[in-house]
Amino acid sequence: MLIATFSLPHDAVALEHTFRELPELEVEAERIAAHSRAWVMPCLWAANAEFDAADEVLAADPTVDRIVDGYEFGDEKYYQLDWAGDVDERIDEYVDQRGSILDAEATALGWQLRIRFVSRDQFDTFRDALTERGTGFQLRNLTEPGAPRQSFGSVTPEQRDALVIARERGYFDVPRETEVGDIAAELGISDQAVSERLRRGTVNLVDATLTTTGDSVE
Questions:
Q1: Dist CA 34 CA 104 (whole Å)
Q2: CA distance 118 to 89
Q3: Could you list the pLDDT tens digit for every one of the 218 residues in the chain?
Q4: By the 8 A CB rule, do 206 and 212 touch?
Q5: Dihedral (CA of 58, 44, 162, 172) sign
Q6: What are the DSSP calls for 88-129, one per residue?
Q7: β-pair partners for 31
Q8: Which of 200, 119, 115, 129 lies closest to 162 in space, CA to CA?
Q9: Which backbone phi and psi does 45 adopt, to 5 degrees?
């Protein structure tokens, strides 16, 4: 098994028009699924944008068939989208190579996809497919897990990294010994992205370890 992180241009995935119009936007895909394009990246968390403008820009994006739903949560907005057919075709091509998309994020610089492959041959086939299509890409990371399965409960690897660094640097101490900006600089992401990962990671940990179905939050 191999886990690879690829940087891809917008036109290799989606939302080229959106990021051209909203260069400060940050997007994180949710409910990533493998081998089923109907459930690959239908839901996005968007940040660093004025959401009335984001609604209009997304609706005009050729890669978006329609916005099914949208809900604002403070400085973020949760979108459920139906992708246009050409996006489905690209996702099909990725999935056909037996690559499981674990997570995906996008900024004005492009998409970053973390993909799991069952074998080196399947990884090579995927990379060759990108090359044959003329899609520029960068392989950011390639690892072979020492164990067939790594689990952090419901916390994503990105959330785990942010939480661990925050803990090691004293973010949760009283008084606090570091700030969000310091963690962001260490991870190479925005302050907003760090805040989101810490918040969502904390919620996921609480849900996975402290609550059960039927619990009420007071």
A1: 13
A2: 22
A3: 788 888 999 998 999 999 999 999 999 887 554 445 455 567 889 999 899 999 999 999 999 999 998 998 888 999 988 888 888 777 777 666 566 777 889 999 999 988 888 888 888 888 888 888 888 888 888 887 764 444 455 677 788 888 888 988 889 988 889 999 999 888 888 888 899 889 888 887 776 665 544 343 33
A4: no
A5: positive
A6: HHHHHHHHHTT-EEEEEEEETTEEEEEEEESSHHHHHHHHHH
A7: none
A8: 200
A9: -100, 125
Q: Identify the sign of the CA torsion 62, 49, 137, 127.
A: negative
**What letter represents residue 175's amino acid?**
P
How many Å apart are CA 49 and CA 140, to the nearest integer? 27
Cα gap 26→82, rounded to integer Å: 19
